[in-house]
Amino acid sequence: MSTIPEIIQSGERLSFFNLFDVKGKNFHVEIPIIQRDYAQGRESTLEVREMFLEALFNYLEENKPNRDLDFVYGSIIKNGHARFIPLDGQQRLTTLFLLHWYLANISGNMAILIAALTIDGKSKFTYETRTSSREFCDALMLNDIDMNALLASDENKKNSLSKTIQDLGWYYLSWENDPTIQSMLTMLDSIHVKFFGKPEFFSRLIDEKNPVVTFLFLNLKEFKLTDDLYIKMNSRGKPLTTFENFKAKFEQHIGSLKWDSATPYKLEYGSKVKQASTQEYFSFKIDTNWANLFWNYRDINGKDNSFDDELMNFIRVIMANQYALDCTIDKDENLEFLIGTQVARKRKDYTDTITFHKYMNMHALTNKSITYLISAFDKLTNGDKKIRTYLNDTFYFDEQAVFEKVLMNKLTYPLQVRFHAYLKYLINNKNDTAGFSDWMRVIFNLSENSVIDGAEDIEKAIKSIESLLPHSSNILDFLRADNIKVDFFNGRQVQEERLKSYLINRSTEWFEAIQVIEKHPYFAGQIGFILEFSKVLEYFEEHGNCSWPVDEDKYYFDEFTNYSKKAIAVFNAVGTDLNKDFLWERAVLSKGDYLISASACRYNFLTSNKFPRDYSWKRLLRLSPLNTIQGNQEWDERRSFVKEVFDDPNFDAKNLTVSLVNICKNKPDDWRKYFIENPELIRYCEQGFIRYESESKILLFKQSQQNHRHQEMYSYNLSLTKLSKKQDFLPFKGSWPYEVRSSDDLSFAILDDWCYNRIYYAIAIYYDTDNQDFATNPYEIKFYKTKGTNNSNDYPAEIKSILDSLKLKWDDENPGYWISGKTEEKTISIIKKLCSQLNSLINE
Q: Residue 7: is its pLDDT beyond 70?
């Protein structure tokens, strides 16, 4: 092979059609053997394929000339015909070849394409990788297709074009094994879906003077690089990362946007300062100062010594938050996708890495979002170190920890809202950080104690924060103003923040006392119940401020700190071994029925961590919503039982366990006393649920529903407390509670493991509200055989005699001998008499 004089200069702009046309370069294009198979049409590259076709479609639709597809590297050689051998750009060139063929077909211009792209019946665009690939390119060029007479697609596929091609006589079955041909067919199907009905695009592609789609040529020979060296470099090097691809297109996009100022930024080069455009500023900073920042976090997502993933995650959060600000429709799917909600993750096209084209399709790369991103980079950059921090207190916002969660794409919804508030304060207030701590404290309290469950809530929360930003540097002053409005966030929490702003304004002592209770991890800023118990809330609601006389301040302050200390002592113990026997729950139950209603007669003890928001002490302690009457009184009464425990003379925060034990000694004479006396009844309810239909019908749920394992409360208590002393119930050796799963079945206590004359017997004790005599005899005792037939004639005479003497009656419907008990004590007495006489049979 010998080289020919350079026909193309490096950097020359060409169209695909111009490469082949005799009026242009009149080249043959050969994909060399060393190149991989055509990949853009693989099933696994759906997003890449669709993004590229979307870009081509948009270019052709806009009809602006010279939309470059970046560089195409290659060599020009002469061996008969002048040939262009691409070493990089194969994928783009192949897709353009297929697009030209398709558009020529639907526009009736196959003759023009054949004249330019064939010679002697062969395609001038060809593959050297496989003979079959070359033959397919030839066959495609020599055969046009009626695009209006395609075969129907297969079910759940859009493959009418490829199916039609595969059905034609010139298509060989052996081509099914060529991955390049199969990828081409897949790409043709995608082109058909995207470009059908756009015949005018063909003329725009082949326009001699102003072609829409072009690329720039780079001649390897001109740079004194041999093909062999390039191949080695390419094979050893890594492909461009997602971020590198994103950055290249993003920088171009920034340059294509219109900006209010041509040079809004300043770039510093040593001692020199230069005014820079947004594109210049971003391009310089992303490779220097900002890169230095993210280098410190390069291994957050794995030990790859790269910060690309971290950077992409950061960009995603900024774009999502700006999109939320600009969002105008409810349940926006793009916002769901940007945030990565559970709704979005169910989509087939969901990915944790968002490409440039995906952002563009979502219209997320706006002037506002780019400006926000640049400002965020600048505010966090700290020379060669990790992010610049501004806050001394990490409780309300831990800057380093939250930033790392951003980089890992592991923000909770409330944290995403707080991160936005954090950045926007820094951006809006420049170097004024005097009110930053107050701002982040208020934002933490509001966001932590409001329901933020998804994209729509994040949108509303961020928009609310945006409306507060003008007041961010003096947020406490704003909260004390009259007739203020704070959207979205929990109304009671807003009221609480307003009240606390007045207390903080009174003295540093109040501020410190508030922070002590706010920072308890269980309350996390929600301390309205302390304000209520100490009567501070009552004063505020009556006067609209906390401007009581100086001589009354000690009373309110002492009350506030007193209840704070008690609450801290209790909730340091809740959930730990200090409360392993549910002393706190039992103490509150001794004051009244505090259980939170769930649904359909279900109630919860607030003992499980499974439902921390819906069934927790924090929820019970939350003040009732403002401006509502229905349900408030009942809820307030339940919360008042907590105050009654705090106010009990026996309560001692310094000796909590002993004091709660003493409080529990004062038991009510109703169903509550069973739970107070026996903590195992509460322990059985692993998720805290019971079913309470009446005082006589209480079921304990192992989980949350009756279709899971459950126990009837009275029989379960009897089994645990009365039947556990096995020596009192000989000859039966076993005793245990029998749980059931179905709502049709009734649980019971059982005595078993007695064998007499090789037959096993048992006693079951029910607390059955369906019993006709329940009002007078709620307990039912059943004596029965545990195996084999159960007929009264099968029982030995000596046993029947004992049963008759104790007045047990045979029941054919529920085979066994039955007797009722009026009370728990009477029932146990009957059972003991029965056991005593049965035991005597063994000793005779």
A: no
